[in-house]
Every structure is written in C-alpha cells, then in structure tokens.
Amino acid sequence: QVQLVESGGGLVQPGGSLRLSCAASGFTLFTLDDYYAIGWFRQAPGKEREGVSCISSSDGRTYYADSVKGRFTISRDNAKNTVYLQMNSLKPEDTAVYYCAANPRLTVQAMCVSGTSPYWGQGTQVTISS
Hints:
Blueprint: E1 3-7, E2 10-12, E3 18-25, E4 37-43, E5 50-56, E6 62-64, E7 72-77, E8 82-87, E9 96-103, H1 108-114, E10 119-120, E11 124-128
Parallel strand pairs: 2-11
Antiparallel strand pairs: 1-3, 3-8, 4-5, 4-9, 5-6, 7-8, 9-10, 9-11
C-alpha cells in the first residue's frame, strides 16, 4: 500500500522554525529506475491549495513558490525514503495544513504549479501565532 505520512507540524511564534518530514512507504522514492517529483503543498482556511516546494528524485532539482523563497528549504534522505521541508523565519501567513505529495510523471515545477498528484499524505497542521 502506497502511503505518504507527514509529521513535524505544530505551533510556533513568528520568526520561528519548523521541519516537516514526509516519509514514504509501499514504494521507493529514490531509485535509479523510477522518477518522482515530491512536493509540499499547503492549504489555509478559505484559500486554495498552493504548491510550496517540490524536488526531483532523480537530479535533486527544486522549485519554490515566491512566497517561501529564501525561507524554506526542501531536501531528501534517500536512505530513509523521506523528504523534508525546513521552514525558517515563519510568518502568520504560513499558517496552513501542509501536505506531501508524489507524482511519477510531472516535472517539479509542473507538479508544484498544477498541484496534480496521485499520491497524497494526510496533512500536518502548521500554526504561526504569538
């Protein structure tokens, strides 16, 4: 069974940091033969889901939304079959449910912009508030 499980969300003050993890099970994200674009998306109440950052399983190419450039960093641990999102300098507007997704067909930019993916995690809540 293919699963993506997010963790690491929580409540932090503005200016703080969090690291989200997305662990895959039932399939291997990082192999020589298979390709996945793996991404982080977020959805705030009353807003559409937006792509935050995506990474390629093959060459590590990354994509970031303008709103998080310079503050968020996406990375991967091949051995742990896990993708991370390090979030620094957090702002109240970063408050949302963050989802992990994987797509075997789209480029990282196409995936982040379209939000299209056959595999999604259940989400983790991130709240930025003083």
